[in-house]
Amino acid sequence: MSVTAVCGILSSVVNGAGKVGGAMAPAAIGFLINWSGGSYGAGFALMEACLLVCAVLVLFFREMPQQTRLSTATAAGASK
Q1: 22, 29, 61, 80: which has the highest count of C-beta atoms within 10 A?
Q2: Which one, of 27, 30, 58, 32, lies nearest residue 45 by Cα?
Q3: CA distance 49 to 26
Q4: 38 to 22, 27, 33, 45, 78: CA distances (angstroms)
Q5: d(C-alpha 69, C-alpha 2), whole Å
Q6: Rounded Cα–Cα distance for residues 54 and 48 (Å)
Q7: Under 8 Å between Cβ of 43 and 32
Q8: pLDDT digits (tens, 9 = 90+) for 2-26
Q9: Terminus-to-terminus CA distance in the chain, angstroms?
């Protein structure tokens, strides 16, 4: 599978997840506000938890530095 195809598939997955999250987040926060007796703290706690998970994922799936990518590509081209 080509790099372009993989990028297209991953872009579609991210876009779809964003649409689902955008549709479900208002309902989830409204439910939490009602469940907690009108306190917005539960809704903010949910948003904070989601932001923390996203931050950990970004750090985990960080892109390789430019120099490493170039040396890897050069090594792969030299071995052909």
Answers
A1: 29
A2: 32
A3: 15
A4: 22, 14, 5, 14, 64
A5: 17
A6: 10
A7: yes
A8: 888 888 898 999 999 999 989 999 9
A9: 18
Q: What own/partner pairs with CB < 8 Å and gap ≥ 24 does 64-68 have?
A: none
pLDDT tens digits along 20-76: 989 999 999 999 999 999 999 988 998 999 899 989 988 887 775 665 555 555 555
Structure tokens at 65: 């530095």
Ramachandran sector of residue 37 (left: φ over 0; alpha: ψ -120 to 50; beta: rest) = left
**Distance, CA of 25 to CA of 46 (rounded, Å):** 9
Give the type of residue at 6.
V
CA angle in degrees (0–180, nearest 5) for 30-19-41: 25
Backbone angles phi, psi at 36, to 5 degrees: -90, 10
